[in-house]
Amino acid sequence: MARILLAEDDLLLAQTVCTALEAFEYAIEHVSSGDDALQILESQSFDLLILDWNMPGSSGIEVCKQFRKAGKKEPVLMLTSRSGIDDKEEGLYSGADDYLTKPFEVRELLARIKSLLRRPANYADKLLKLGEITVDLDSRILKRDEQLQRLQPRELALLEFFMRRPGQLLSAEAIFTGVWGSDFEGSEIALRSCLAKLRKALASLGYADLIETVHGAGYKLRLPDGNKKA
Questions:
Q1: Residue 215 CB: number of other CB atoms within 10 A?
Q2: Which domains, from first to last, does the chain contain?
Q3: Closest by alpha carbon to 26, among 51, 47, 8, 9?
Q4: Which stretches of 24-123 are DSSP H helices?
Q5: pTM for the structure as a whole
Q6: Do residues 34 and 59 make contact, with C-beta atoms less than 8 angstroms apart?
Q7: What is the pLDDT of residues 10-69, one digit of tens each?
């Protein structure tokens, strides 16, 4: 049975979430402030954290940052009424794994929880490697030998999504959902623009063709020599 910590100061919403999760046999612990969340995390372990962005005391962002700073890798889902892309990026780059905008349907929350709990234990690793390329998710540095490129948050999120799924064919819809959340109102044009910037950065390191466009189907990250699957 997965243990979940919910930090939410809206008591009505918290009760609704707790009731729904208990019905699906999750063990749920609820606190009403970020400070309470930090205190309970000092003595207890959870399989997943659900944090409200705006809470009395420490915010959800602050709780997430301290949680990651302590070396914890369990998934974090951020709840907030902020729907701007910049806000989503701030939440994701504080160490959160996913972002859900209020108001939301309980079934959407459950789908996000199931997805996060299925992720491998090393998903929160902050240093990714593919071929001769290394990506530091904290510094946003893309590196090959002594060559460096600093990525913008949106480009980094896109590259991370591809690097965790090398060789997989990914549709535009899957990319939108995985990188920005299913409530992101994006377009193919926005994705192409972000891809163009990312490809330019990769080309400067000698990997111009790393991300392949499969016409009519989507995109995939090629496996460099040495990373090919048997």
A1: 5
A2: 3-122 (3.40.50.2300), 125-221 (1.10.10.10)
A3: 47
A4: 34-41, 60-69, 85-93, 106-118
A5: 0.57
A6: yes
A7: 999 999 999 999 999 899 999 999 999 999 999 898 999 999 988 888 999 899 989 988
